[in-house]
């Protein structure tokens, strides 16, 4: 269920309601219909501070600020078009990967234009290099950065339509009324937007000053609304990359090395495989050997039949413990805590194992590479960098590479990378024909992007009821940010030589995304990354799930040492009013402190990021009968029986979308803490598909989930990742309280014997199943 709650916190100094009273500059773009845009380069009231050269204070400047500032210079290139049929079109320069931003954008336009939602057509924009940093989807930033630009563009369109109507009807703009795409004068005469768009259009681009609609008159924003693509999604009409029928693009798959990042040196039976039924081409590329055929089933047969000589990958012979030892060896000495008499120190060392993004929609791309041009189709969060890098690989200029952005079924950080699109381009060039490339599930689990293995050491000192110091040293396998996201950070970091890795990116992003919302005296958080041999990337919520889990477990131990209730302790030391607000509401809604049977417990954790704050309370069952319950071919273990998420995300565009995001985040957080990880054995990850990567399944999903959305006077913040970290941390804290043992490795079951029989590495793709009904429930 979802509730809208009144704000508990104090009135912010710059509230969202001030936006409606300000004037904005926009543009009416020259053309035959109304095309309107915003100009925000000098009008960012809520982000007026100068960008610091080396941001270190999370409270003053965070990743949302950075991404929003980067997008502002090209805000005038984001346009809303009024069509002659009375509809409005908007090419969204972000990627829809299931998070619902096409619906949110449509709602914003519909509200500002007074158009029915069904008359808003939102598509995904292809790569537009002129947008520079305004076409990156990440950091839960889309609505925070685009809310005002979209509104201003829609307001400019509406104003020009009103002026055209006043001229045609013989009245004044102030006497006209707009409703459902119709403009009516005081006498009842009316004109539709479609009838006016040609007249309202301007042959030349001109500046237009507008005010925005009074939020008190909103009829759509803030109301629970079904997604505009929901029906297509559930009826199979929604179009993903592999659904496209691009002329000549046949199914293609890649045979990969038996060790991580191994490379092919020789194909021993290419002619034999090419002669197999349906197979048209076999070609070697840097990542493996590609097989193109009439069907994907024939591709699988071809890949399985290949005999290839391989060069071993860089981690051949190594396993989890070897990588962990290397990370521990890279741990930097922690600064000495203050020499305070009678003070006591709490110290914990935590380990977070490799994890997979594991989106539902497998990595896929279509490529048609010619000698003088190329065209790509794929679900991409950073299409501009994709275009640039593919052009470089093909020896073309970027303007000769067209990149079409497709909707994708999930990302969780995975689609910031364009390795599927790059590989498709390489294969198409090698074969000389268009290809429809699809990664097998085993490909993404074994050689896809993994959330880096990390350790986190936390030291806290307390005395006389006060926390004197709180230090955290996070050490990890390098998180690859060279997908274009990191380049925004600083020109200095972007200029680092390749051999130095991306440490400048990582340290800055760490500083912009992690913080401690408590008054704990001397605060220090540091990051050191090592080992560049893995394919890594930011999983949903980047560093925060690991960082907050380590932090909140130690916060619980501080509360215990001071003999205070965990939630009351957090309220006492909290230095963020929005965090305080969600904590108080969580205490009420989740009935914090209620009696719980032995072996069960509540856990509480908070997180502030993306211009918002969230508190999660979970109830976990660690009793033997629950931990040992048997489900066929399943990992069970402790179960979260109830999860309560209280979130303040600023102004809410679509409560139903927020609820969906929080439900998904809750299940992500549970998986990270209890069940899901990758196991590296002899240079290769053992997991090879969903059936042996143990994300939160139905039998581990909480039977009861409650999402409470706080009413807030703040501008819209980020939603997509906001609930992951507090859930992961709350589950860990609940587990510690239920068992009496503080967990120090995550997920907690990583060292248990494998719950599956590993699939063979040679051939790299398992055979297509012929007994699917056997695996149904």
From TrEMBL:
The chain crosses the membrane at residues 24-43. Coiled coil: none annotated. Keywords: Membrane, Oxidoreductase, Transmembrane, Transmembrane helix. Residues 235-314 form the Aldehyde oxidase/xanthine dehydrogenase a/b hammerhead domain. SMART domains: Ald_Xan_dh_C (SM01008). Residues 746-777 are annotated as: Disordered. GO terms for molecular function: isoquinoline 1-oxidoreductase activity. Pfam families: MoCoBD_1, MoCoBD_2. Its EC number is 1.3.99.16. It is an enzyme of class 1 (oxidoreductase). It comes from the Bacteria. InterPro entries: Ald_Oxase/Xan_DH_a/b, Ald_Oxase/Xan_DH_a/b_sf, AldOxase/xan_DH_MoCoBD1, AldOxase/xan_DH_MoCoBD2, AldOxase/xan_DH_Mopterin-bd_sf, N-heterocyclic_Hydroxylase, OxRdtase_Mopterin-bd_su_IorB, TAT_signal. Residues 748-760 have a biased composition (Basic and acidic residues). The keyword Repressor does not apply. PANTHER family: ALDEHYDE DEHYDROGENASE (PTHR47495), BLL3820 PROTEIN (PTHR47495:SF1). This is Isoquinoline 1-oxidoreductase beta subunit. It comes from Nocardioides albus.
